[in-house]
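Quick entry between incubations.
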Amino acid sequence: MKFDDEPLVPGENLPVRPGHDSPGRLERVLRAGAFVVTAEIAPPDSADPEEVYARAALFDGYVDAINATDGSGAHCHMSSVGMCSLLTRRGYAMVMQVSARDRNRIAIQGDVLGASAMGVSSILCLTGDSVGVGDHPEAKPVFDLDCMSMLNMVRDMRDKEHFLSGRKITSPPRVFLGAAANPFGPPLDYRPLRLAKKVAAGAQFVQTQYCFDIEIFRNYMSVIRDMGIHEKVFMLVGVGPLASAKSAEWIRSNVPGVHIPDHIIRRLAGADNQKDEGVNVCVDMTQQIKEIEGVHGVHIMAFKQEHRVAEIVTRSGVLAGRELWRPGIARDVDPATH
Amino acid sequence: MHRMRRWSVRNARWLKKLYHGIENALTLCHPLFERVGYQRLDKSFLAIEKVTKGLLIDSQSCGQCIVGFTGLSCPMNCPKTMRNGPCGGVRADGKCEVKPEMDCVWVMAWEGNQQLGEKEYPIQFVQPALNNQLIGTSAWLREVRNRKAVDNEI
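Done. Structure below.
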């Protein structure tokens, strides 16, 4: 999606429009009413920027914004600040994930300012998985904040222009604030209220856990609509391809918070090519999700299958002919029209 | 201990009333506390809280008690010390992601909130980040002082 005030220099942000909070593309596209696609980039176990660029390039022209995870699954990788800094320089719209697990309020506020200075316009506040599920279970879990107090804190940094301590910030971070939601975790009847609370704490967009159970999600969304929450927050629903029935079994018993119903696993098990069937399930799910009132987009988490994101986006038809930003697009803008 | 926690959550309605009754009674004693000195009383009160709240709700003495909001389920028993609701990792059977043998503190808090019979769920109030300097001090005395400070402002 190209706007009439596109920056001429790649890496520069868009101007902040009246009523908007950030100069970011994600907020722009969402507020323009498009059905948005975001995807999660795999962080490299390396210090090589070329690996980051190559991984981002897989999504060129297919996603509106890219999420950089922050030690997801409590595993160590390149930091979200680092990845975002590299990619914003090239014009990518980044969603910087910040987990409360590894850093306290001093570190997080510093990162928010630093990232904003590097062009990050969207921040996703997370509590984070426990250290026990990762590759450093002996690490000290920090959890100085939770996602809710983090949202509140970053919103105050932006809107009230002060740190949590009350000390003044001279130039506030212009960031669009996001949160995660898991409509599929107990207590199911509390989950819509939990989202309402996140919105009250400052969340403007939400990216959900993987949706494999459309019935639970439809019920959740019907409560969300009754409460009117879908008018206060942009809902991006998590989807992703499962590699096989076996890996689906493993995920549902080992990855916290992922709910996969039996019929999905049976469908995978019965397929000749389980990997392709995983993509088919993802495409079906994406199309069903798009039809639900109150949903504003999908968030594709194609763990170890990032090369199939373009196919999922194309086959599901969610872009409906919309042309997305890709590196180099800024140079097409005619300076004379400005 | 887990059994006692569950009992407290099931009886959240009258326990919350009792809890507030204690705070009200203590507030009346404010002039006396002031004369003796809050600082000097803190250790004794903390000891009383540790025994009573420790027994009933496994209180972790964070010094800024919010169990009135959480249906009498102490959020400091959450391994992620979340003070604003359940994380996304709660197991399908309602057990904790980190400690599978323990009921999720926030699943219990939601049950407790439904027991309260109040018009709005207090669990929905956004709690500020924990003040680490107050850990291991008396929450009751702090509440009394806070109430008096508010009174003085009015």
